[in-house]
Amino acid sequence: MAGKDDIKKERFTSEKEDLARLNKDLEARILELYSLYNISKVLNLSFAVEEIFNGTIHEIGKTLKIDEFCIMLIDEKCQELAIRAWYPDPGTLPDVRFKIGEGISGMVARTGRPAIIQDVSKEPEFLFYKGAITDIGAFMCVPLLGKRENVLGVFNVHKTQPNAFTDNDIKFFSEVAEQVAIAIEKAIIYEKTKEASMRDELTRLYNRRYFFEYLEKESLRADRYNKNFSILMLDIDHFKNFNDKNGHIKGDNVLKQMAQLIGNKLRCSDVVARYGGEEFIILLPETQKKAAIIAAEKLRKAIEDFKYEGGENQPEGRLTVTIGVATWPDDAAFTSELIDIADKALYLGKKQGR
Q1: Is-above-0.70 flag for pTM?
Q2: What are the start-end ranges of the H helices in the chain?
Q3: What mean pLDDT is predicted for residues 38-66?
Q4: Per-residue confidence (pLDDT) for residue 20, from 0 to 100
Q5: Of the listed 15, 178, 278, 316, which one is catalytic?
Q6: CATH number of the domain at 2-196, out of 3.40.190.10, 3.30.450.40, 3.30.450.30, 3.40.50.2300?
């Protein structure tokens, strides 16, 4: 009799534990569905990529117990993955990029297939964001796929302890990534349309308005992380003479050719704009004065060596430029002052003989 009671008791205990487990799983799924619903609401109200990132990061972080996660998008300009959103602190974005195929994130971007690394210490391909983040035990990377199954970027989730991901995690984050990707694709189209108004019509470089907006953001970022950046102010020498002798059509061709040459000589992270007339302005992130001067000289030489039609009619027998350099925060405490110093350095260079 006692044996039957013991069996019943064991069965009851087992069923109770199973029920508790099922109840816990159900609660977790309800929490996930609630999070998906709220993320969907945020995404439907967002038109800009940054709004999507901020809303998604906030909602997932608020609802789910995740140590860290980030969203990386492919930079079309140089075909690299760049971090665009970070949790728990959106203000501490590591300045890390991966080539397509590099590391786990790069491989997922190349294949379009998700990856889970339950113990990153056993995975030689895992790069710890090139040393920027070290306290990662388990890692999951889900692709952000567009309508045509094209990879827009990746959604990365980190946990400090190894073997922390479940089978449900990959399903849930794939659902999140699917919603985020749809919204991002729409937002990219919206932002490309908006960006067209910030491009110079002739050279297709950014215009002054965009550059000033970017400069303000970069100054805040540099101050937050105690970083330098430099700007180069570039002016074509004797350009009026060139137009007078060769005509404005050839002058416009020079501006377009020079804009392309400058763009080809810069890093992906550098920003170049047409400042006005025959002037260009360039922002070099995380670049100290010495490195900026070296970059300016290389650029000046590359422009001088290029054969422009009509360049032989210039006073030096070729087309040349003068470049002024200024560095933040060494040279100025305000962005307007920084531009003024670069401008003065430019005209000092012209005065001293170009």
Answers
A1: no
A2: 2-44, 49-63, 103-111, 167-196, 208-224, 239-246, 248-265, 289-305, 335-351
A3: 69
A4: 66
A5: 278
A6: 3.30.450.40
